[in-house]
């Protein structure tokens, strides 16, 4: 964050010297106010991605941890769709919000959420239906991770259905609220792992991770609803109702 702030100030000075008019660089404090919550959020996403594995290793043998990690990697393949769309739409969210064009912002959000949902749904179904063969590719002993894989994939599907709610909040000045949500989700993840792993092993770890994902996804969606007045994710029934309303005009 400090390096980003220094780079920002340096680049801003260069732009100003180039004669871009009345541009005024934000203060270092302002840059830190924006970047530090995002740094904390990125850290919590890292925690959510590894806490289950580390805590599973505390209670279960290494072989089970290896099976679980393979299931985790396969079950979260849908995140590639979210990350890819985020890299494209995230900067546009910031630009449209800065212009005050909430109508275009909403259209872009719905488009991105629709693409993620309809590309993610077949991936989810394939993972669930072919869970055994997918894990069996790593070896016959990995097929014991099928229940964990299905649980993890279900949690990933909920995140995919929420669209780009995380990017929306962080690119529109609501990064502090989203950071608080992620901190709460990280704490819930640790507690759920402690409660579920001793009794259920890798399935408990998967349930803890999936539950934490659902918690922060729903909380972020509610925050976006409160801030903007509309849901960030893709809801098929909602889209059908909107289409019928438009057709009836």
Tally the beta strands.
0
Average pLDDT across residues? Answer: 83
Based on helices, strands and strand pairing, what is the structural class?
Answer: mainly alpha
N-end to C-end Cα span: 50 Å
Quick take:
The protein has 249 residues and is mainly α. It has helices at 2-17, 28-59, 62-75, 79-99, 102-129, 131-136, 146-161, 165-171, 175-200, 202-228, 236-247.
Question: Describe it for me?
Answer:
The protein has helices spanning 2-17, 28-59, 62-75, 79-99, 102-129, 131-136, 146-161, 165-171, 175-200, 202-228, 236-247. By secondary structure, it is mostly helical.
Key structural traits:
249 residues; mainly alpha; disordered C terminus
């Amino acid at each position: 964050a400090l390096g980003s702030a220094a780079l920002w100030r340096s680049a801003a000075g260069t732009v100003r010297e180039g004669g871009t008019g009345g541009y005024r660089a934000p203060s270092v404090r302002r840059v830190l106010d924006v970047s530090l919550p995002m740094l904390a959020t990125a850290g919590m996403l890292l925690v959510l991605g590894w806490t289950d594995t580390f805590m599973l290793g505390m209670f279960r043998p290494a072989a089970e941890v290896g099976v679980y990690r393979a299931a985790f990697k396969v079950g979260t393949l849908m995140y590639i769709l979210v990350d890819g769309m985020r890299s494209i739409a995230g900067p546009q969210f910031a630009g449209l919000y800065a212009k005050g064009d909430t109508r275009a912002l909403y259209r872009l959000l719905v488009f991105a959420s629709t693409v993620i949902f309809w590309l993610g749904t077949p991936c989810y179904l394939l993972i669930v239906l072919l869970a055994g063969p997918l894990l069996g590719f790593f070896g016959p002993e990995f097929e014991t991770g099928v229940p964990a894989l299905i649980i993890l994939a279900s949690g990933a599907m909920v995140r995919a259905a929420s669209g780009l709610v995380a990017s929306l909040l962080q690119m529109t000045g609501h990064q502090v609220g989203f950071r608080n949500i992620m901190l709460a989700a990280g704490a819930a993840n640790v507690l759920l792992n402690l409660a579920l792993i001793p009794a259920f092993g890798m399935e408990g770890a998967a349930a803890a991770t999936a539950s934490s994902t659902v918690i922060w996804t729903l909380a972020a969606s509610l925050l976006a609803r409160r801030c903007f007045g509309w849901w960030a994710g893709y809801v098929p029934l909602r889209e059908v109702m909107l289409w019928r309303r438009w057709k009836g005009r």
